[in-house]
Specification:
The protein is α+β, with helices and mostly antiparallel strands. It is built from 13 helices and 10 strands. The radius of gyration is 24 Å and the shape is elongated.
Length: 387
């Protein structure tokens, strides 16, 4: 006998998908959701349908845009909850490649604010820490704009990752060989501390960031020329073996105009040299902050493996940016959901539980009568309406 979800049970408990989606209600209210048609034909998808479809792509196990469109047409949960009016393949691909980018960026900003109010800060004593890094996305040869090297096409996302809360906050997209360093000033806000690998070492940038009031903890090459202005005290037995105020670079080259603090420490026989303008912290604090940078690498790996964000459903810069933003929005929704419901970080265990709940509830709700007197087994869209 099939399981029947009683109407009273359905009223007491919000369906899992809408519980996950809950933060979007306030976020979407605060933005301009109007999409403009590029011709005389009316739009086949509004912004929220587009957003739900892209979240559904990342949340469920879809491996292509065609797979997603097929699910939107044939899967009962998707037909009733994600795209009640139906979405044609041509409408879907035309929409994500031409519209909604401004709205998607605005939604991301609103969700970041909400997430910061829900997810606790783990390292508040060190200030607002933002890891900055780029990640390559395998492209296809027809993506002419995604220059990388001969015979290979790649795009690159440049991400600002809130290390205090473990959530992504900002995202930019370029071709694969795009320089990552110019995005530091775009990602960082005054007062924040950017945490970066040695690829971001550029002495003119160190001067510019300090002038902008943007702090940094950036690994540099060990052999970088340095002129010592003042040595700082080092604690006996510390992993830190060097701590000085210096000018980086030679006088004939790109020497920094503003002094920086240079901290060097040794972990498991390996030396790390880190430049910073944070004079309020100990050398050991600087070492721990740089260690946190690994969290953005872990995020990229998890994001790619479990939310399938690098499975291309669009090949234009606009469409790929839409997909990447939707992947970040999905992760933020999961972060809010896991902390509000379980007081935990995002994990694949909780994501799998959520996927199973959504599928089970969809099956159970198929057994609800849609109106008094309806036959058991008829689906009730009213029971699963967006709330």
């Amino acid at each position: 006998m099939p399981y029947t979800l009683k109407p009273t049970e359905g009223k007491k408990k919000r369906p899992a998908y809408h519980e996950l989606r809950g933060p979007l209600r306030e976020a979407v209210k605060r933005i301009n959701r109007t999409l403009e048609s590029r011709g005389n034909r009316p739009l086949q998808m509004d912004f929220e349908q587009m957003l739900d479809a892209l979240i559904y792509f990342h949340l469920e196990d879809h491996d292509s845009g065609r797979h997603l469109v097929q699910a939107l047409a044939e899967d009962q949960f998707a037909r009733e909850v994600i795209a009640p009016s139906g979405i044609k393949k041509s409408s879907f691909f035309e929409a994500i490649n031409t519209r909604g980018l401004e709205q998607m960026i605005a939604v991301l900003g609103e969700l970041v604010k909400q997430a910061k109010g829900v997810v606790p800060s783990a390292h508040g004593e060190w200030g607002d820490l933002v890891a900055i890094d780029g990640s390559l996305i395998d492209a296809v040869l027809s993506m002419y704009w995604a220059d990388y090297r001969d015979g290979s096409k790649k795009a690159k996302v440049h991400v600002g990752f809130d290390l205090n809360r473990g959530i992504p906050a900002k995202l930019f997209l370029t071709e694969g060989k795009g320089d990552e360093r110019p995005f530091v000033s775009k990602i960082l806000e005054p007062g924040q501390t950017g945490v970066m690998d040695r690829y971001y070492q550029k002495h003119k940038s160190f001067d510019a960031w300090q002038a902008e009031g943007k702090h940094f903890v950036c690994r540099i090459k060990e052999g970088t020329t340095k002129t010592v202005i003042r040595d700082n005290e080092i604690q006996p037995g510390s992993i830190v073996f060097y701590d000085s105020l210096v000018l980086l670079g030679s006088t004939r080259d790109n020497q920094t105009k503003t002094p920086v603090r240079l901290v060097a420490y040794r972990v498991e026989g390996k030396n790390y040299w880190v430049a910073t303008d944070r004079h309020d912290l100990t050398g050991e604090d600087i070492a721990m902050i740089y260690k946190l940078r690994w969290n953005i690498e872990s995020f990229f790996g998890w994001w790619k493996q479990h939310l399938r964000v690098y499975h291309l459903i669009a090949r234009s810069p606009h469409g790929l940016m839409m997909q990447m933003l939707a992947g970040m929005i999905t992760y933020l929704l999961l972060a809010i959901y896991c902390h509000e419901k379980y007081n935990e970080k995002v994990s694949i265990t909780r994501v799998r539980e959520l996927r199973i709940k959504i599928r089970n509830e969809a099956v159970a709700l198929c057994c609800l009568p849609s109106v008094p007197g309806s036959r058991e087994g008829e689906f009730s869209p009213h029971a699963y309406a967006k709330t």
